[in-house]
Amino acid sequence: MPDNVVTNILGRLPLRDAVRTSILSRNWRFKWTMLSQIVIAASFFGYLSQTSYRNNRVRVIDRILLHVRGAITKFFLSIDEVIDDEDINHWILFLSRKGIKDLTIKNWYVTPLKLHTHLFSCLELKHLTLSNCYFNPPPTFHGFPNLLSLNLSVVFEENTELGPFFTRCPLLESLTINDCRKVGKVKLIEIAKLENLKMLSLILHDPDFEMIKSSGTILGSLAKLQELYLDFKDCHVRLK
């Protein structure tokens, strides 16, 4: 079979099954290393915990990434247990050098992940999804010039400045934000500068009255907007 057909088949299998095709025959031994999309679900860690690799789960993922021959265009990671932040940051640094275009990190464990600035060197990103991570672009961040969709359910740090971040993502078409810790870093006036925005979903906790009152006027300036979802939680409005 042509390589593109093989990778299409392997890409539809769970990662553990794709890697296990290496035992089918000598010809199939390294076929899985042609994968360009790596999906590591929480169930993969559960599977490893039942094998002899239960104490070396991070090393298994290290070896999988190192064996992939070409670009890794998509990386999906979902974890529901403690994984050292530095291990995840090591993977992100590796992916930044492998042409990553679609990155998803979902952390179901109670403690947010602290991601290194390596994340902001993934300049080929088109799609970025982060869940339960600290988010704070460094001052040296020059932008994601190719980013089309951004989904953040994160903890914004106190010194986070989202305005400059948005202006450095000029192609952004889809934006979803859940301000998990009520830090109040999301400002509609800054989002309104995203000229190419087509889909906007905001879950904001305890917004001020002026934001709510002005939301229609401000967001009405987004000429290309097609879908809008606003959820103002824990909102306390005082009527005079």
Automatic annotation (TrEMBL):
The lineage of its organism: Eukaryota, Viridiplantae, Streptophyta, Embryophyta, Tracheophyta. It comes from Helianthus annuus (Common sunflower). This is Putative F-box domain, Leucine-rich repeat domain, L domain-like protein. SUPFAM superfamilies: F-box domain, RNI-like. Residues 1-48 form the F-box domain. It comes from the Eukaryota. PANTHER family: CYCLIN-LIKE F-BOX, F-BOX PROTEIN-LIKE. It holds the Pfam family F-box.
